[in-house]
Amino acid sequence: MVGWKLLVVQPLSEQGRPQGDPLLAIDNIGAGVGVKVLITNDGRGAREMVGDNTSPVRWSVIGLLDEV
Hints:
This protein has one helix at 43-50; strands at residues 5-9, 23-27, 37-40, 59-64.
């Protein structure tokens, strides 16, 4: 995981309220504090990104959400 930015992300309900426990996700697109992001739990894809098939990484940021 050397060189990867890690974010603590909080899943939100459809109404925008916190839902569930915070998660740890890798980020290679540059999200900042307070930015809403789209995440995926595709562990296989995340392990491919970090280049380690034995890595415990599961969550990754795949998009930044625009505000309406």
